[in-house]
Amino acid sequence: MLKNLSNPAVIAQCMTSLFLAILFLQSGLDKVSNFKGNLSWLEGHFSKTFLKGLVPFLLTTLTVAEVLAGVLSLLGAAQIFIFNQKTFALYGAELSALSIVMLFFGQRIAQDYAGAASLVPYFLVSIGAILLLGFA
What we know:
- This protein is mainly α.
- The protein has helices spanning 8-33, 35-45, 55-83, 87-109, 113-118, 120-135.
- The chain is 82% helix and 0% strand.
- α1 packs across α4 and α1 crosses α6 (120-135).
- The protein is elongated and about 55 Å long.
């Protein structure tokens, strides 16, 4: 276990997994704890789009994806640190990327271009994590 701490690839894998865990657990749990508030805001955000009738379903889907991405990433960081295995971390990174794609799609449809652009760094981190976990 401590031997892994001298390997920069292992540290990078663990840190990116922790980053995604924090990002998606906070975001997903915020949606869980304030579902009605998020739903209300999103219904207004998508009121002039073809998604307006789907907002409750889409918010629920996104919430589940985010919480699961965060949990898998957290378990993955522990799995990397303890067992030097990357299975959960890779699944967490992949679900993180998918969650960001869902968010990006919604922001573009709502014509919130600044909101869509703000997701790009997170997407790049998740894609970097997938590559780092898949090839290193």
